[in-house]
Design goal:
Chain A is mainly alpha-helical. In chain A, 74% of the residues lie in helices and 0% in strands. In chain B, helix 2 runs antiparallel to helix 8 and helix 19 packs antiparallel against helix 22. The chains are: A mainly alpha, B alpha+beta.
Chain lengths: 290, 638
């Protein structure tokens, strides 16, 4: 206990710094590839019999020549702009629809006692265990064959929105439960209708939780590639994840385009995530701590 | 208001709704069944054409093949072309541009593949002594022509395939007798409304005449309709069989009676496995007894569905008659607000989550593949077979000179890998997360917020990107990880070639991806533990270990257990990492259940088998979920 705090923590700092470096290395690696202006999976070209230091240079995440040609290439040579646009439209529509559906359902589960309430909540929970592969073929038949929504934004949107519902509902319900019911009761006595209460009182009060729900819905749509690759067959209808996999999946290896595309795709979600992480954590732990 | 009261007093609502729904479902079932029936007879007639020609060619000398095909084409203007393929050669053809026999050209590779497919299908059937694989293929071309492919046997041995192209084969087969009973539903429904209006209910007694009458009316109306449609359906089978018989007679005129004789079963009229159906004799006479047996066998499932619909309608009527329906409506009205708010999400979930789920489970009991999707549902039904194949296969390894050889395709191997995958991943996630959270929870540690933000990054990045990035870093030739190994003089590792090393790639990737979640959750819980508890313990003389053991861990429990349950379920189904990093290499050894199911569905196109596989996954998770809740509840009291 005699040590001053900085010296006592020196060991901890060393451990933390080395672990942190290790953990952001893949991120730096992608950045280095993205700005390297070349397509290979190595950061620099190694000579035939590399020495220790040449190898060390090879793993340092700094490109040999700094260039933005991968970023420009991905926009001009590849239809990546188009894919990004598809993803943006699908994700935003999913967010709007998903949040609306989840808010109304969560409000009902939180405020009303009605027959079927417990069963409904339980089925929402169980649906989280449905394996994706079991749903894939029936969903394909329903969306593409019966509803004819293959290669459309709307087909993907309704599937993504419903996939995100159970988690969002549980999350929002937990938050709605913490809003005192007195506010609503007094509003009811003042003659406000249910709708007024829901839209004017509850939703504004639940803004942080709704932000998380929106983030979650957005990420569900933004990061999904299996359904998207099954529903969207035409290359111009690919979403960004399907397109990114197209760069390095199978036999093609355009790692530079992949890296540049990954940086572009990741930036918005990482920014959103870091901005909203405080809420996310409180939302995740709220249910269990109580 | 008066109308409402009148509706409530009579049985008009109950009778018309239940009869209406029953009729609608009957119509739907019968229309589907009749469509299936038509397409089956079309298929049978096409197959008959191909079979007859193939049987004629079977014993013909090679020089006559072209001539025989040309004769066949000349016989009917609807016959477009025929081609005979054996091995790499086109043996005979009727197309003027072909000078058969000649080698197949590159564009005809599909023909060669198809021949191989049919040959192996035949060998499989013979080898397994069951009929599992179809021995023919019918392709419907957009212009109205059909292409039929059947095996071509020369002197009893498989020698190639015969492919015929026929234009509008049903041009004269579609003039079916107009079905008059299909329009019966309207008068029946009107009768139901009229009769319902006449019946007054007296709620005092439970078994009054009007209720009995309503039941009797319901049964007679719906059964009448079912009977009429069934008669038509049966007639359709008879008509179809007659057309088949006529086709056989025509073939006899052209080719003579088949060698088996006029009184024996015709070898030309077969099912897709090329087994004679046994309904038509060699000279085209119909054995009506066999036809009926076949019809009854094929409609057993269908008839059961009809009775299920009847029971459903009856249940609905009873619900109306005994006031259950009224109670239901009252509940709905009483909680109208609640149901309105739940309805949009619930409808979405029903249509796009629960219905697909049930559909998938049903699919698991069929033998649906990409190739027989269009077949009638009743014919694809195989019961528990898929599950027996999956769970009953204990062929886990073979003994050989070099020791044990594991069978990586076996379900139990994949299950074992999945369990190891889940356990190791969750342990790594929890322990890394716990250690980091403990460090970050140190009082007045400088730069805590910065560390936290950086360490949370792996969680924020889309996981498919993470997976592909690690795949690049594990690249056997240029990957960074092998560079590091070589830097220290070690040999590079071909990561995706060994079972263990390939497993490690997934483990590292998923570990990197999953520790932030655990760290954040644990950190949140640690910060909510009041400081004075530790101080009190310190005063009492508890050492570090005792404080950890008796304060931190018990207080972490309520947070940790749901987080672990969640991450077990996530990891168990962590499709992206396995699929994108190692792809289950080598030879599918590192596949987990969910990626395996995906590959069965989308690489082998065995939809039903994949559905059964997925159902097994769901059951495993469900059992785990129930077990976990039990255990958690049981230990909560401690």
């Amino acid at each position: 206990m005699a040590d001053s705090p900085p010296r006592r923590h020196l060991l901890l700092h060393v451990a933390l710094i080395s672990f942190t470096l290790l953990s952001i290395y893949p991120v730096l690696w992608v950045m280095a590839l993205a700005f390297s202006g070349q397509q290979s999976v190595g950061i620099i070209d190694l000579p035939k019999d590399p020495t220790f230091f040449e190898r060390l240079r090879g793993i340092l995440p700094i490109p040999a020549h700094f260039s933005v040609s991968n970023f420009t290439g991905v926009w001009t040579e590849q239809p990546f702009g188009r894919w990004l646009w598809n993803s943006t439209v699908v994700s935003l529509m999913t967010t709007v629809l998903g949040v609306f559906l989840a808010c109304t359902a969560a409000y009902a589960f939180s405020r009303f006692r009605f027959p079927g309430r417990n069963a409904g909540m339980l089925t929402f929970l169980v649906s989280q265990m449905f394996p994706g592969t079991l749903m894939l073929i029936p969903l394909f038949i329903i969306i593409v064959k019966w509803l004819g929504l293959g290669n459309t934004y709307f087909g993907l949107v309704i599937v993504y929105a419903t996939t995100a519902i159970p988690f969002c509902v549980w999350m929002l319900k937990g938050y709605f439960d913490t809003i005192p019911i007195d506010i609503e009761e007094s509003a009811l006595i003042d003659g406000a209708s249910r709708q007024t209460i829901f839209f004017r009182i509850i939703l504004p009060l639940a803004k942080p939780a709704i932000a998380i729900t929106a983030l979650f819905s957005f990420m569900t749509a933004w990061n999904e590639f299996i359904l998207a690759s099954v529903f969207m067959e035409a290359e111009s209808n690919y979403t960004a994840p399907v397109g990114l996999r197209f760069f390095v999946g199978g036999f093609s290896s355009q790692w530079g385009f992949f890296a540049a595309g990954s940086v572009i795709v990741s930036l918005p979600v990482v920014a959103l995530f870091l901005y909203l992480q405080k809420y996310l954590i409180s939302g995740l732990t709220a249910g269990s701590v109580k | 208001m008066r109308l409402l009261r009148w509706l409530a007093r009579t049985h008009v609502l109950g009778l018309s709704v239940s009869v209406g729904i029953t009729l609608a479902l009957f119509t739907w079932l019968f229309d589907g069944a009749e469509r299936d029936q038509r397409s089956q007879f079309e298929q049978r007639l096409l197959l008959l054409q191909a079979n007859t020609l193939a049987k004629t060619l079977a014993n013909a000398p090679p020089d006559d093949l072209n001539l025989l095909l040309a004769k066949w084409k000349a016989r009917n203007p609807r016959y477009e072309s025929a081609a005979l393929v054996g091995g790499m050669d086109l043996l005979a053809s009727t197309r003027p541009e072909d000078t058969a026999p000649r080698r197949l050209v590159r564009e005809e590779k599909p023909l060669y593949d198809l021949a191989n497919l049919i040959r192996t299908a035949g060998e499989t059937n013979r080898g397994e002594k069951v009929v599992r694989k179809k021995l023919m293929q019918i392709d419907r071309l957009p212009g109205g022509s059909d292409v039929v492919t059947v095996p071509y046997l020369a002197n009893g041995e498989f020698a190639g395939i015969l492919q015929i192209k026929v234009r509008n084969p049903y041009a004269n087969a579609t003039d079916q007798k107009a079905r008059n009973s299909a329009g019966l539903w309207l008068p029946i429904l009107i009768a139901a409304i009229g009769l319902g209006a006449l019946l007054r209910s007296r709620s005092e007694s439970r078994l009054d005449i009007s209720r009995m009458a309503a039941l009797a009316f319901f049964l007679s109306l719906t059964l009448f309709y079912q009977n009429q449609r069934m008669d038509d359906f049966l007639q359709g089978d008879l008509d179809g069989t007659h057309r088949v018989a006529e086709a056989v007679q025509e073939a006899v005129k052209n080719y003579g009676v088949p060698p088996t004789g006029a009184g024996a079963i015709s070898p030309w009229d077969t099912d897709p496995y090329l087994r004679p159906l046994g309904v038509v004799l060699g000279d085209g006479r119909i054995i009506d007894e066999n036809r009926m047996t076949r019809f009854n066998e094929h409609t057993r499932f269908f008839k059961r569905s009809l009775w299920a619909v009847e029971a459903l309608g009856l249940g609905l009527l009873l619900a109306f008659l005994f006031g259950t329906m009224r109670k239901l409506v009252e509940t709905l009205r009483q909680h109208a607000d609640a149901y309105t708010y739940v309805a949009p999400a619930m409808i979405g979930m029903l249509v796009l989550v629960f219905f697909p789920f049930l559909y998938g489970i049903t699919l698991a009991f069929t033998d649906t593949t990409l190739f027989n999707e269009s077949m009638p549902f009743f014919e694809r039904w195989i019961g528990w077979d898929n599950f027996v194949t999956i769970l009953g296969d204990f062929n886990l390894f073979q003994r050989s000179g070099e020791g044990l050889i594991w069978n990586y395709q076996n379900f139990y191997w994949t299950l074992m890998i999945t369990v190891i995958w889940t356990v190791t991943n969750v342990s790594i996630g929890v322990s890394l997360g716990f250690i980091l959270a403990m460090i970050l929870n140190t009082d007045d540690l400088k730069g805590r917020a910065l560390y936290r933000v950086i360490l949370i990054l792996p969680w924020a990045i889309p996981n498919y990107i993470t997976a592909l990035v690690w795949r690049g870093m594990f690249h056997p030739q240029f990957g960074v990880i092998n560079q590091v190994l070589q830097m220290f003089g070690m040999a590079p590792v071909a990561w995706f070639d060994g079972v263990v090393s390939s497993f490690l790639t997934g483990l590292v990737t998923n570990g990197w991806l999953s520790f932030p979640f655990m760290m954040v959750v644990i950190l949140g819980a640690l910060q909510s533990i009041p400081k004075d508890m530790y101080e009190a313990a310190e005063v009492e003389g508890a050492n570090r270990w005792q404080r950890l053991r008796h304060i931190t861990l018990p207080l972490l429990r309520p947070t940790l257990i749901p987080a672990i349950v969640l991450s077990v379920v996530w990891t168990f189904n962590m499709f992206n990492i396995i699929f994108l990093v190692s792809g289950g290499e080598p030879a599918g050894a590192n596949e987990i259940l969910i990626t395996k199911a995906y590959k069965i569905a989308f690489e082998n196109y065995q939809y039903a088998y994949a559905a059964a596989y997925s159902t097994v996954i769901f059951v495993i998770l469900l059992v785990y979920g129930i077990f976990q809740t039990r255990v958690t509840k049981a230990t909560e009291s401690f």
